[in-house]
Amino acid sequence: MKQIVVVEMASAYALQVNAQSVQEGEKMIAYGRYESAKKILTPLASSNPEANYYLGIAELGMGNIPTARTVFAKYPDDFYNQAGMARVLLTEGQKEQAGKILNAITDKARRKDWERYKVAADAINYTKGGVMTDAVAWYEKALSIKENDAAILIALGEAYEKVQGGGGQAMSKYEHAIEVGTHNSLAYSKIGSLWYAAHKYDLALKSYEQAKNADPSNPLPYRDLAYAYYRAGNYENALKNIEDYITRSDRSIADQITRADLLFYAQKYAEAKAEMQQLIDQGVEKPYMYRIIAYSAYETKDYATALKNMHIFFNKQPKDKIINDDYIYSGKIMSAMAMVDSTQNKVYNDSADYYFNLAVTSDTASDKSDLYRQIAEGFKDNKEYKKAGNWYGKIITDNPEAAALDYFYWGFWNFYGHDYPEAAKAFKAMRAKYPLEGSGILWDAKVAAAIDNEAKTGAAVPIYKEWFAFEHEGYEKKDADLMAAWQYIAYYYYNTNNQSEAMKYINLVLAKDPSNEFANQVKDYYAQLKAGN
Fold this sequence. Notes:
This protein has 29 helices and no strands. The chain is mainly alpha-helical.
């Protein structure tokens, strides 16, 4: 009798250990540590269908689709592994066949059989191609059976994120999961990502810190913190979290690629380019890697390398995975090449316009202001100032309620591009929209003075005088601007033989700069005139 009890206790202990190990493997998958999950699950998979399923999921996570298919095929009658096979089919684009398998799984669910609903929903949620509303419905069904399950709540939150307008529901599910308290690190990570996507970086940083504190072994918040710190402009902390992420990850090829990606976002362009190139030289090749090399090469002004790798990237990357930044960087690269290769200037400039216009037509956002600014800054960096000004002008055309700074740059870059009529139009529009912005008056005058560069018409005189009279809290007139204004007005009055008015402004110049050459020449001229010479 004692021997039977001992055997039963040993069996129960073995089952408990296996269950804990499967849970640990599942946790590693949730943390993106697929190689660690594989090590944990492989010894269990031969006798445990659920362990085998998660082993297949780990293989899918590493991109090993044929291996995953072989793994799931070991238990053809187990619904977990059937759902795994549906994931393989979805990955291969066989949506209809995958849907039949998943519907068959849920159709056989009994009254308390929540696992069938969750595993079917997971197949859609974590693989592209399924009907996301089905996943939401199945998660909700699973949650109605197994209430307050943090894992289901988090998965449901992720599904809601992929449904249009589902952000609020997603946040609610993640917060509920935190109340349950069993998966807090993952839940806080997901909340942080929601804030990050909403550009609320301070709240994202707070949530990621909470995720770190809940489970310091979770690499995800360190990765996401690096991106968030980059967005917040804190590159030192971005780099620190990159390294913290790597020490907690599996250091897989995917992790190394992520590190190089993060180095790019932390503006360590030379290091990012070198690391991606090193991986390619070792035989690891993904289209995305050429993207980072091209972007990084552009940022380090290695335009020929940028152009070469951008061409490779477009040849290898599927069209449905090309993003707007690819078109923007292509435009920037072409614009830069136009600057360094004068023999092909027109060809490169035409190509730059082509890619920038592709970026605009591909952008589905109703407000394209950020996109226009990126394009304008690209032209500005390559000293194509008139084009930079024109793209800022598009912001105003699309949105007359744009910020004063957008109006200013519309005029400013057109001014430096020597398109004075467009610059004048911009600053007059700025003055009408933002009458309390002194820079609008000043630059309206500067443009008028540039057009009348010999001070013959005096077009800038009344505008400068309006600027002299302008007062507003926090606005200060700089000496350099005052000097330029006084000299232009003095020159105009000199040209019109108005000595008293000319000397009024000459004396203002000399009070600031007694050695000013122009002012002294005018003063000496009038002195000689008075002496009868």
